[in-house]
Design brief:
Length: about 450
């Protein structure tokens, strides 16, 4: 019987009756269920950092545009264009010009059912381009759901944890993998889920140069667009811009999610941006599956068509409105979400003041940004042991080991669901943890 912030015997008995053999190995949803049950029984609120879901309201401008599309344009009764609303395509093309300083024609700017579907469509189509290239390089740590997509598709991938290959070391690592000749594409997220590292300009250049040298497509997942809050990337047409590999190669596909940057997760609408060169590229292998060998055409009229025949009609109007406002400089979407970074800064300090370490801590010489996620460890604990112990202290997070990270001592913490009025509880609970587990 220990003096833990959450009643020790209740937590213990809930763990025992949960049927989960190792709490540290539980899936996110199993953990959610367990914590819900403990909260109900004890009446105590947890510091819930296990789920990577957005926690801020959707900008009104987007909601108004959707309502107008439903009520006045009556779009719910009509199939959307497969390739997307013309006005949305135009705004996406403007958006990447104004916020990334890259040129892509509206043709290659395509709405998808969340950027998760954008990834799926890209994975399927790319894998069918060449008979002799059949493997994706998957940069870890990463969002596990995309790996799950590849597994279910039965597609091959190789992976490595980028932690040990930052900076110049990345070039040799990529070269050693690309020179085998079987890699058709690379996937990474930037800022990274789960570690919140952001590739430096040097690293993006290396990815781009290697992509050019070995004819590899880079799929850059920008699920957290403009959310490296160290710099203000939100002024249309003005540097600094959202860093991107597209500055160094025209062999790219960008996945831009609306879920976090525009708090639009519920409507399942994302954006896929294919470079002009890649869109028009002919790849002989495609003819085996599609009516044409043109990449962009196969992507839309082959893969996207068979998966969902387009993307939610009204949501496309919502996103058009918010992009137009961002592009015109009348709405600053960074102001809507910078709260994530502000909370992260405070929360990280509570952890580090109480013996915890930030696992993925630097981008080159700069400490990583404060953002949607951060990673933590505690001396003497594996990640799995730490999750199990923190449950008694009213804190929940997930183990980095499920994200392909080699840093098995670490946990991923997401700031979005933690409310500021919980900060005193968080600080108190971490102090207690530190008191009970003195660092030698
Ligand atoms: C790296 C990464 N990619 C993609 C997604 C999914 O985005 P969407 O909601 O647009 O499908 C997420 C969401 O958590 C993510 O973290």
């Amino acid at each position: 019987m220990k003096d833990t912030p959450i009643n020790f015997s209740v937590v213990k008995s809930k763990i025992e009756t949960s049927g989960i053999p190792h709490i540290g190995k539980a899936t996110i949803r199993e953990l959610v269920k367990l914590v819900n049950e403990i909260e109900t029984e004890t009446g105590d609120r947890y510091i819930r950092m296990e789920m990577g879901v957005p926690g801020l309201p959707t900008p009104k401008i987007a909601i108004d545009a959707e309502i107008d599309a439903i009520l006045n344009k009556k779009v719910t009764a009509k199939y959307p264009n497969l390739e997307g609303l013309p006005e949305l395509k135009k705004e996406i093309s403007r958006f990447v010009k104004l916020f990334m300083d890259i040129e892509v024609k509206p043709t290659g700017c395509i709405p998808t059912v969340g950027s998760l579907q954008g990834g799926l469509i890209a994975f399927i189509t790319i894998d069918r381009m060449y008979e002799d290239k059949d493997t994706m390089l998957y940069i870890d740590p990463s969002f596990p759901l995309q790996k799950q997509q590849l597994k279910v598709l039965g597609q091959k991938f190789e992976q490595f944890d980028v932690y040990n290959y930052r900076g110049k070391k990345l070039r040799d690592k990529l070269e050693s993998i690309f020179k085998k000749g079987n890699i058709h594409s690379v996937l990474y997220s930037n800022p990274n889920n789960p570690s919140w590292i952001c590739f430096t300009e040097e690293e993006l250049q290396i990815f781009g140069e290697m992509a050019n040298k070995y004819n590899v497509i880079i799929i850059e997942d920008l699920a957290y667009f403009c959310m490296d809050f160290r710099k203000d990337l939100s002024k249309p047409g003005e540097p600094p811009f959202q860093p991107t590999v597209a500055k160094y190669t025209d062999n790219f596909i960008l996945l831009i999610s609306t879920s976090k940057a525009f708090s639009y997760a519920g409507q399942r609408v994302g954006m896929m941006v294919i470079s002009d060169k890649l869109f028009n590229l002919r790849a002989s292998g495609l003819k085996r599956f599609y009516t044409t060998d043109i990449f962009g055409y196969s992507m839309i009229f082959g893969t996207l068509y068979m998966l969902s025949a387009g993307t939610c009609h009204s949501a496309q109007y919502g996103i058009t409105a918010i992009l137009k406002a961002a592009n015109d400089g009348t709405h600053n979407f960074r102001d809507d979400v910078i709260e994530y970074g502000r909370k992260a800064e405070i929360m990280k300090k509570f952890f580090t003041d109480n013996g915890f370490k930030i696992v993925y801590d630097y981008d080159g010489n700069d400490p990583i940004a404060h953002g949607f996620y951060f990673t933590i460890s505690y001396p003497g604990f594996t990640g799995e042991e730490l999750i199990e112990e923190l449950i008694y202290y009213g804190i929940s997070a997930i183990s980095l080991s499920i994200t392909g990270s080699e840093r098995t001592e670490g946990l991923r913490a997401c700031v979005s669901l933690v409310q500021r009025d919980q900060f005193p509880d968080l600080e108190y609970r971490l102090k207690k943890f530190n008191e009970h587990h003195p660092v030698k």
